[in-house]
Amino acid sequence: MYLDFAQFQQMRKLSRDDQSQGLKMAAQQMESLFLSMVLKSMREANAVFAEGNMLQSQEGDYYQSMYDQQLAVNIGNNGGLGLAELMVRQLSGQGHESAFRPERYTGPLQRPRTEAIPKPSGPVPANASAVDIKPESTAAAAPAAEDSQPLWQDAKEFLQYIFPHAQAAARSLGVNVRAIMAQAVLETGWGQHVMDSGSGQCSFNLFGIKADGRWDGDVTRKKTLEYRNGIAAQEQAAFRSYRSLDEAFEDYVSFLRNNDRYSGVVGSGEDAQGWGHRLQRAGYATDPHYGNKIANILESDVFQSTLHTLTKQF
Questions:
Q1: Pairing assessment for the beta strands 128-130 and 207-209 based on DSSP bridges
Q2: CB-based contacts of 310, cutoff 8 Å, min separation 6
């Protein structure tokens, strides 16, 4: 609530940690303020005709004002008039093209560094991230890694690169290829925020898989947003680092197939919409909205139009 200073500070912190969520919350608060102003104007106009009413009092007006403020907040946080969603679309640059806003987006898109990796005959694989696995502390881990320069010029090119690799992974896991691609989109912000390997190169970790005791390969360290008891907070974690997209996708398949907790996820068939929810229930991610975010990506205009074209080409 915008009148609560502690919650206002929490919103400021969230805006730094997760810009898209911070933008959404700020837009809801702005809509609540607007509704509060409308209610206040309505009460003032009504007071003109209520002069001389014995039931009118300063105490009554005070509690009426408190009620109106809380009412405005409740309306704004439960859908409101649609103003918050419109502001989010406008400020995030989505316009009317798509209702989806990449959750991991943290800044303007950078130009791809195409010389960093030659274009393969098929799309490039994406990495994965399993937020729930506790990283093993290791001295070999790099100090801290930022996002690498994107290897793909835009969202469509990213999807084109990873499509053949995602197809192979989908066949091995017995799931819909769209589900795997939507997960890679969520974890990398449409391919624009793949973590650095620690040496300035791309880690190819498109699925956010952490480096636990079972991993003996290269490691990169990075801040990640985790949810503990419903509260979001940044944590430093160790992630797996790969030398290529092929290696990243192979490890992604192995990670899911060789982990008992995902036995109900592997082989789940063509239900792409349920993929993220099944992963979330199995403990893949701590984000309580992980399944909904993947489902939103599947429904976005860019994703659907690009996948429609790709399925015809391959």
A1: parallel
A2: 159, 160, 163
On whether residue 189 sits in a domain, the answer given is: yes
| Residues noted as catalytic | 226, 251
Which own/partner pairs from 269-272 qualify as long-range (CB within 8 Å, at least 24 positions apart)? Answer: 269/174, 269/175, 269/176, 270/175, 270/176, 271/176, 271/179, 272/175, 272/176, 272/178, 272/179, 272/182, 272/298
Q: Any idea what the CATH number is for the domain that residue 209 is in?
A: 1.10.530.10
Let me know whether 268 and 147 are in one domain: yes
Same domain, yes or no: 147 and 259: yes
Q: Report the pLDDT averaged over residues 42-52.
A: 61
Q: Are residues 82 and 138 in the same domain?
A: no
Amino acid at 154: D
In this prediction, residue 116 has a pLDDT band, given cuts at 50, 70 and 90, of very low
Largest CA distance in the chain: 83
Q: Look at residue 70 in the predicted model and tell me its pLDDT.
A: 75
Lookup: tokens for 135: 């990283």
Model's pTM, two decimal places?
A: 0.55
Residue 99 resides in a domain: no
* Cβ atoms of residues 122 and 167 within 8 Å: no
Same domain, residue pair 46 and 168: no
Q: What is the pLDDT of residue 138?
A: 29
Number of domains in the chain: 2
Least confident of 63-67, 198-202, 272-276, 280-284: 63-67
* Residue 118 dihedral angles phi and psi, to the nearest 5°: -70, 145
